[in-house]
Amino acid sequence: MFTQPGAAYAPPAPAVPVAPPVFDHPPTPEQAAILDAATTSQDLVIEAGAGTGKTSTLKMVAAARPNYRMLYLAYNKAIATDAAASFPHTVQCSTAHSLAFRAVGHQYADRLNGPRVPARQVARILGIPAVLDLGAHALTSVKVARLVMDTVARFCHSAEVEPEMYHVPSVPGLEDPVVMAALRREIVPLALKAWDDLTRVNGSLKFQHDHYLKMWAMHEPTLPGDMIFLDEAQDANPVIAQIVENQAAQKILVGDSSQAIYGWRGAVDAMASFDGARLRLSQSFRFGQRIADEANEWLQLLNAPLRLAGNPAMDSRVERIPAPAAVLCRTNAGAVGQVIAALGAGHRPALVGGGDDIRRLAKACQDLRAGRSTEHPELMAFASWQEVRDYAEHDSGGADLKVLVKLIDSHGPERIMRVVDQLVTEDAADIVVSTAHKAKGREWSTVRLAADFSDPYDPKTGQLISSEAMLTYVAVTRARQALDPFALPGRAGETPTLPSVVNDGLFDTLVPDPEPIATDLPADLIGWLDLAKEAKANKAKWADVENAAVEKIKDHLAARGMEEATVHGRPAVSWKPSKPAITVDVKRLQSERPDIYEAFLTTKTAARPFKILEG
């Protein structure tokens, strides 16, 4: 078993009387509850909303337990370094990679510092044939080699002991399940062969930091410390989550489940399945109540257990912002469009993360337009630029490429690459552009959201796409003083309402279950959208509207001896476990009233404070 020097777990030494801890500020009631729970030695899961001071809270826990050795596991090295400067000396601040390098990685230092191994060389090392025939599709050995190494990378992030079929990444343009199954059957044995090479000190493939992390994890290490903090637990790689969960020491996981935006690369919300006492931090210190209200609309949409309270000392605003400090986009292509617009307006834009990803994407587009193939993972399955156009226009899986296609067709890849050359550093910029993913953990005084964010509802099924709603929630909560969300779907003008849908009988008569006694919601509740609109105009809190409506619904149904009403046999309105909902039968709406079906799909994002469920 790999262990850190002196890391074998032992219960903490008997407490020595110490002076009461001194905090930078008095704990909030929520922080005080966490401090009390931490002293019981039980494992904790802390749901910490955006800007709620999770790091400060962990520092309080550390200060309150001076006899404990603690380990703070950070998401990246920069966070670990910052934390080390402010945590008490009893806390070791580190990344999992740092621990793994000391235990295992140093043995592979020569390979880590070795030369790059191009995909063509990977193909030769692994014996990949020149062409992989998948029937209607064929992939060159170079493309297969890249998929193999991507599969190994996903395996290293997982908790599995060897590469599995699901580790093979999806390939845009190869959505046919039969084709993908055939591809995965070819890739997995090659990934096993690659992993065998990587575990040898004298192997030939390029060795990466995630490789020694995985080797270390497979030996079930014991982490140093009597108490372990796992920060950003909602985006933990399964391999790290498993290491932490296996520890005998007290564990405290902290994060925001509504910011779990890295599932596409294999991250999991470790908090969801972790067995520990659950507490929360809902008092945001980053922004005032108006931005908190905007964030809470997305939390309501996600059916999250947390709602944010704004900082009473801040008068944040939600308004149109012509010249924001930052513009946040959903896609790289959307970010390029914002950079082009900023340059055209005479600004000096910076792009968070730099322009290398954009340059590589533009180069791939240039190759396809010139009739050459590309190895870029987003475009490698396409034989021509026209195939990319057709895919973006007609395939539901290609919707995120529409902005890219429009940019390339309008400006050309050469101009995109020249635009990248005009970027400046953030220190020299007068406007910062970022994707929402790269903005995570950041904040700016004023933020505008770009128009490339997706509707959080699937246009075909009407079901909520949680990943899209989470990404928008992350973007909304980056602002401190002012937020401009009015380019989001359904937000271009006044907040849309659905009076024709609500009043058209399409919600059906609410019938108690099981007794067939008909009951209708009172008219003032049926017209809740107008009530909410009026409340917004008067700058009232959406939460106040919701709470008032919930009480009326409870009273209305309780008077009839009911706790729940149903539509088509499914729960429609309930206050147990406390979330009321109006249910829309989307299929019936589509068949009986196609004239308003499309309007419903485009406007239902405004259907808050209630959650709309599709049947």
UniProtKB/TrEMBL annotation:
GO terms for molecular function: 3'-5' DNA helicase activity; ATP binding; DNA binding; hydrolase activity. This is UvrD-like helicase C-terminal domain-containing protein. Keywords: ATP-binding, Helicase, Hydrolase, Nucleotide-binding. InterPro entries: DNA_helicase_UvrD-like_C, DNA_helicase_UvrD/REP, P-loop_NTPase. SUPFAM superfamilies: P-loop containing nucleoside triphosphate hydrolases (SSF52540). GO terms for biological process: double-strand break repair via homologous recombination; replication fork processing. It comes from the Bacteria. Gene3D superfamilies: P-loop containing nucleotide triphosphate hydrolases. Residues 427-483 form the UvrD-like helicase C-terminal domain. Signal peptide: none annotated. The keyword Flavoprotein does not apply. The keyword Nucleus does not apply. It holds the Pfam family UvrD_C.
